[in-house]
């Protein structure tokens, strides 16, 4: 016999269900005032340093149907690549945001600043990116992915996560397309053709 | 917080499969492709933090928070409490715990919920709290009712409370549901049974905790939550292979 490993197992995930917004985005759900102060209403404050950008997109299922009931969370670094809590991070960039799709169009929008490159402890550098976590009815465990930017070619080419993607055409699914000055488009496909690369870490 | 090491890779066998035909909506909303494996990076090792200054005095009392204390919600009064721990058994202090639920009749305050159980004018169904320095949390609420939902012919959700927990890094993010000891509907619920491991399933069921129940006032249920842990070794943060 061996000594027992006294480890706990992570609590299993369960779907966020169709009513996730009444709990996490009550104003969006039509229940303002449910809690004193909602969290994740914007990833930046007025004082944030860096280029203002707006990312718009959709979340679609395996038939291409655009979801209206997903909730997305984003988490990003400041313009210098530092996360809130790290020494020297821009206090104007809390970095965390929650958003949902428009009830009719299914479009979501994230207004933020473009993050900087993020250094890894071993010296490698991650291209500018925004981490996303997607939950909805029918999603049994939240899906993690990242938004990269198509106009960061050089940094993207050296990004350790993008480099791990064996099927090179799939890299495209993580690149936000530039649609105008400071405007990007990023569509998330949960399944099927053009399926977004989701992360397992 | 300081750099506390890489996240322990997520054990996917602890969780439901994304694709589970018993839960029909998952069929078109689950990836077909394998997920891309990677080690955590600072992106996942850091995360948003929330302080007590963001909480209102009634945020952790769903019996009173919708009416701001004017009138209580209808239902069986309960206290739910427990600890948030990580895989190594360490408490997770100062982390945001958010909950949402149906009212005592099984109806959500949501425009898409058309179940004909009535809305309770005194119940919103949304609350939150922050764990203390020992990872302990508690909140007051009413026991939610079971409700039917369109899936297979006659599917009902057992009574449950939805949970959202942050931990201290974005990679620890977790949403789950708490169930109540003894509810016969658990046996039939395809969402509950997306979790296939018996021990893991049991970990979603909160026991009645009579020692913490208050006579002539409320019953208590205990629900502990385990988040992913982080490795801490002297060999971290060196270039690969060295
Ligand atoms: Fe529910």
From TrEMBL, chain A:
PANTHER family: DIOXYGENASE, PUTATIVE (AFU_ORTHOLOGUE AFUA_2G02910)-RELATED (PTHR33711), PROTOCATECHUATE 3,4-DIOXYGENASE ALPHA CHAIN (PTHR33711:SF9)
Family: Belongs to the intradiol ring-cleavage dioxygenase family.
Tree of life domain: Bacteria
Keywords assigned: Dioxygenase, Oxidoreductase
Signal peptide: none
Domain Intradiol ring-cleavage dioxygenases: 26-192
Entry's Gene Ontology molecular function annotations: ferric iron binding; protocatechuate 3,4-dioxygenase activity
Protein name: Protocatechuate 3,4-dioxygenase subunit alpha
InterPro entries: Intradiol_dOase_C, Intradiol_dOase_core, Intradiol_RC_Dioxygenase, Protocat_dOase_a
EC number: 1.13.11.3
UniProtKB/TrEMBL annotation, chain B:
Matching InterPro entries: Intradiol_dOase_C, Intradiol_dOase_core, Intradiol_RC_Dioxygenase, PCDO_beta_N, Protocat_dOase_b
E.C. no: 1.13.11.3
Domain of life: Bacteria
Protease recorded as keyword: no
One GO BP: 3,4-dihydroxybenzoate catabolic process
Keyword annotations from UniProtKB, A to Z: Dioxygenase, Oxidoreductase
Molecular function GO terms recorded: ferric iron binding; protocatechuate 3,4-dioxygenase activity
Region named Disordered: 1-26
Main enzyme class: oxidoreductase
Bias (Basic and acidic residues) ranges: 8-18
Matching Pfam families: Dioxygenase_C, PCDO_beta_N
Domain Intradiol ring-cleavage dioxygenases: 80-108
Alphabetized NCBIfam families for the sequence: protocat_beta (TIGR02422)
Record family assignment: Belongs to the intradiol ring-cleavage dioxygenase family.
Classification via PANTHER family: DIOXYGENASE, PUTATIVE (AFU_ORTHOLOGUE AFUA_2G02910)-RELATED, INTRADIOL RING-CLEAVAGE DIOXYGENASES DOMAIN-CONTAINING PROTEIN
Protein name from the UniProt record: Protocatechuate 3,4-dioxygenase subunit beta
């Amino acid at each position: 016999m061996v000594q027992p490993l006294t480890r706990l197992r992570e609590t299993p995930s369960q779907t966020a269900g169709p009513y996730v917004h009444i709990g996490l985005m009550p104003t969006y759900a039509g229940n303002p005032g449910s809690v004193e102060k909602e969290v994740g209403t914007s990833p930046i404050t007025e004082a944030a340093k860096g280029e203002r950008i707006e990312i718009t997109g959709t979340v679609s299922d395996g038939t291409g149907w655009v979801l209206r009931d997903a909730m997305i969370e984003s988490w990003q670094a400041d313009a210098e690549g530092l996360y809130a809590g790290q020494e020297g991070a821009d206090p104007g960039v809390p970095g965390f945001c929650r958003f949902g799709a428009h009830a009719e169009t299914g479009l979501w929008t994230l207004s933020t600043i473009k993050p900087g490159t993020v250094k890894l402890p071993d010296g490698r550098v991650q291209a500018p990116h925004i981490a996303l976590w997607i939950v909805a009815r029918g999603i049994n465990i939240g899906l993690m992915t990242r938004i990269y930017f198509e106009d960061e070619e050089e940094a993207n080419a050296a990004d350790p996560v993008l480099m791990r993607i064996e099927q090179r055409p799939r890299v495209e699914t993580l690149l936000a397309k530039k649609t105008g000055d400071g405007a990007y488009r990023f569509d998330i496909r949960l399944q099927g053709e053009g399926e977004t690369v989701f992360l397992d870490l | 917080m300081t750099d506390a090491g890489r996240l322990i890779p997520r054990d996917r066998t602890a969780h439901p499969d994304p694709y589970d035909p018993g839960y029909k909506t998952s069929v078109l909303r689950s990836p077909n492709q394998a997920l891309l494996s990677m080690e955590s990076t600072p992106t996942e090792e850091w995360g948003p933090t929330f302080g007590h200054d963001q909480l209102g005095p009634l945020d952790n009392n769903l019996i009173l928070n919708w009416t701001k204390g004017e009138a209580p919600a209808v239902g069986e009064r309960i206290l739910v409490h427990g600890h948030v721990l990580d895989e190594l058994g360490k408490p997770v202090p100062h982390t945001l715990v958010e909950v949402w639920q149906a009212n005592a009749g099984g109806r959500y305050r949501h425009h898409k919920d058309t179940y004909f159980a009535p809305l309770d004018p005194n119940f919103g169904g949304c609350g939150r709290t922050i764990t203390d320095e020992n990872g302990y949390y508690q909140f007051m609420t009413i026991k939610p009712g079971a409700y039917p939902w369109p899936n297979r012919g006659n599917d009902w959700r057992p009574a449950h409370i939805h949970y959202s927990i942050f931990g201290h890094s974005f990679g620890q993010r977790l949403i789950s549901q708490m169930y109540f000891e003894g509810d016969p509907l658990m046996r039939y619920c395809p969402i509950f049974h997306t979790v296939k491991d018996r021990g893991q399933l049991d970990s979603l069921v909160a026991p009645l905790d009579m020692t913490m129940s208050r006579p002539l006032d409320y019953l208590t249920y205990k629900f502990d939550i385990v988040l992913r842990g982080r490795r801490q070794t002297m060999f971290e943060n060196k270039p690969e292979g060295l």
